[in-house]
Amino acid sequence: MRVVIWGQLSQTERKLVLARSQASDDEALIRQVKEIIANVRQNGDKALLEYAAKFDGAKLDCLLVSEDEYKAIESLSNDEKQAILTAIDNIRHYHNISCPKSFEFERNGAKLGKLYRPIEKVGLYIPGGTAPLVSTLLMLAIPATIAGCETKVLVTPPGKNGLVNPAILFAAKACGIDAIYKAGGAQAVAALAFGTESIPKVYKIFGPGNKYVTEAKIQVSQTHNGAALDMPAGPSEVLVIADDKANPVFVASDLLAQAEHDVAAQVILLTTSTELANKVHQEVERQTAYLSRKEIIKQSLAKSAVIIAKDLAEAFVISNQYAPEHLILQIANAEDYLPQVINAGSVFVGEWTPESVGDYASGTNHVLPTYGYAQMYSGLDVIAFMKAISFQNLSASGIKTLGPVVETLADLEGLDAHKNAVTVRLQHLNS
Amino acid sequence: MRVVIWGQLSQTERKLVLARSQASDDEALIRQVKEIIANVRQNGDKALLEYAAKFDGAKLDCLLVSEDEYKAIESLSNDEKQAILTAIDNIRHYHNISCPKSFEFERNGAKLGKLYRPIEKVGLYIPGGTAPLVSTLLMLAIPATIAGCETKVLVTPPGKNGLVNPAILFAAKACGIDAIYKAGGAQAVAALAFGTESIPKVYKIFGPGNKYVTEAKIQVSQTHNGAALDMPAGPSEVLVIADDKANPVFVASDLLAQAEHDVAAQVILLTTSTELANKVHQEVERQTAYLSRKEIIKQSLAKSAVIIAKDLAEAFVISNQYAPEHLILQIANAEDYLPQVINAGSVFVGEWTPESVGDYASGTNHVLPTYGYAQMYSGLDVIAFMKAISFQNLSASGIKTLGPVVETLADLEGLDAHKNAVTVRLQHLNS
Which residues form the active site (chains A, B) (predicted)? Predict the structure, then answer.
């Protein structure tokens, strides 16, 4: 990790230190995803079964996970089941509180309000790969259930054996997801957006994925009658603000937890103490030695930075400018600094709050804006599975009061049919 | 308006009746917008001044509206000023209530919460054209101000005389917008997304516009370090549900208010009464005769439909399938039917609530999801000008309780650096 002193950098150098790697337009990827989507729209399940064989190495007869396959849940230990259930309980608690509430009020002869309604059909994408991303399932399925989405379609790529990991099956059952389909990649996104014989069409698609999934989500979101996407995606990232009292062992472990995600993961340590920076550096080396994903860690750390700030005020300016997905505060009286956080996905406050607790089980959602999007996007929450409908109901006296105002404004905008809709009513009331 | 009886239509015919016109990829438009954006990024204000001459026919020395120009406000009548102020008061009242609230709670040794923060820099686009869209300004500026956005950059195309309409200037002042820049079209969007010498860069761009504006918003939202957009855009639309007791004069006036917007506007009357449909048809002809925008009205009505439903239950199924931007309920005991509304942008309840009241002054926001997007998007509101940041703060006892759960889940996902971040803390506490 290279070390820079913020005060000694030019404006351009500062921008470079905080810059994310820019994704280049990958024409081949765009074309390939386009072809996959077209094929799924044309051939439905048949295309999905062929892609499962080609990309997942899985020979499937049927996309839907059968009742029989759920027996695999028995292979989980009690500890594993209990950990999943505790995480569900905490995530449910937080998201229940976070659920938006409809309201109505009366004023000047008008009743007005806002109604929150679930999005009727949602798609949940759970990536496959070497390990089952149980936590991602919880982070999507729980808010979808609290929102009250009627149709929740879960897709996940099968393993080579054609099966879905038992932990995913257990978590899905526990979250009230009834139907799991074995499909991954761009083809799964296409199936969710347009439907196939077995997979129902949905209105919005949630969940992370590789570059094919991300590109497919963008393409279907721009297609007439396709499906909206949850938020734009980029590599995961952490920024740790630490002062001279921070424990270098904890700081290093937090940087490493981020670095193991992906070689593209971004890791920044922002500290007021050069001494701490040195100690963290040593700790990173010591801990990396015993971690299994050390090759990934080394590559992501190679691109990462340690920034020395002159004080915490400067540190928060830098952090807000970067707008990190995860912000960890390992500083004295950390909670007092929350008001200074303007741009971040989720904040981990104080020495006993590693990012991992939020990733899995504290209760907050771990699907967060990356890539600087925390400037204007929120992390996932129940509201993302709902939409708001406003309403107004005027009484006769209400239109008498408000009508002339509307007539004047419609006149100003030159829209006389807008005005007329009020005028015919006022005439009726005055006749 | 053609009349169809829902019960006699095939599935395909039903889809066709409710289908929106599909926008075709306009390669020339996409290329032209790309060039405009590149030019503005390269040449800044100079490009904007050239485009103002070329597209708006306005010779400008300076993009910012000068203090002197605000004197034009004096040309407004007291009625006009008062109407704008009343609308502001109502819109502010509704949006204040609608503003999301931060929360926090404690549980199992953890304090968790959610902080709402304004998006720091937002761009507000007010279209130009023959009439000043004062109401659009109110619908963007008021929630931006309630959210607390620090930098609110308002752009609007100048008239041929190089000036901005006095009503826009008055409304902007009254809403607390200090800086108005004379720029329109794709070039204004480019300036907001990337900044120029005089126009500050913003993080998110709000407001309707023509096809160049819409395409530019899409392009900058997909560009690294560009700007997010408010919501996807399509032609405006209304669906009126009316029973046999509805007043045909009112129903016709509501259909016409929508039809005058644009030749692409969509108008649907959904009724349980053939007799009412006939009366509305006559009223549409009678009222059209005295309206000024009759040529636009005739063209948009030509594509519109009257659907006869067998009962109100069927009508609501059809309406929810269509997911109208504006839904008008002219039925007995209209408010009792609100629970049946699943997909709509805003609902106008009962005979005294024409759409125009919501367009201008009832208090709800008139920037609403079109084109079926009400299935998964909300209308504009304060929350669109904010983002939520979650936080968690565990005590030592909190990590002791939750830590083992996180370790188990990290193990399941094969992420041992995630586990390690907990383990080093538990070791510290147990040592």
Answer: 325-326
Same domain, B166 and B302: no
pLDDT in tens, A75-97: 999 999 999 999 999 999 999 99
Supply the DSSP symbol for A64: B
**Residues B257, A292: C-beta atoms closer than 8 Å:** no
pLDDT, residue B386, reads: 98
Is B219 an 8 Å CB contact of chain A?
A: no
- Rounded to a whole number, what is the distance in Å from the CA of B292 to chain A's nearest CA? 7
Q: Identify whether residues A75 and A197 lie together within a single domain.
A: yes
Residues B428, A249: C-beta atoms closer than 8 Å: yes
Q: Which helix (H) or strand (E) holds A123?
A: strand A121-125
Catalytic residue numbers of B read 325-326
| pLDDT on residue A132 | 86
Nearest alpha-carbon partner for B126 in B155, B152, B153: B155
Q: Annotate A149-174 with DSSP letters as a single string.
A: -SEEEEEEPPPTTS---HHHHHHHHH
Exposed e or buried b per residue across B80-94, where buried means at least 16 C-beta atoms within 10 angstroms of its C-beta: bbebbebbbebbbbb
Note down the domain range covering A417.
Answer: 396-430
Which residues of chain B neighbour A421 with C-beta distances below 8 Å?
250, 253-254, 256-257, 354-356
**B356 in contact with chain A, both atoms CB, cutoff 8 A:** yes
Q: Which residues pair with A181 in a beta bridge?
A: A64, A155
* B111 contact A CB<8A: yes
Q: Has residue B26 got a pLDDT over 90?
A: no
Residues A38 and A176 in one domain: yes
Residue A428 bears catalytic tag: no
As beta bridge partners, residue A306 has A3, A269
Out of A347, A363, A379, pick the residue that ends a domain: A363
Q: A392 - beta bridge partners?
A: A112, B348
CA–CA separation, B317 and B144 (whole Å): 35
Phi, psi at residue B8, to the nearest 5°? -100, 0
By the CB < 8 Å criterion, does A263 face chain B? no
Please give the pLDDT value at position A68.
96
The two structure tokens encoding residue B311: 């009962």
Distance CA B330, CA B279 (A): 14
Angle at which helices B211-221 and B185-194 pack, to 10 degrees?
Answer: 20
Chain B partners within 8 Å of A399 (Cβ): 352-354, 357
The complex scores an ipTM of: 0.96
Two structure tokens written together for B397: 């006892």
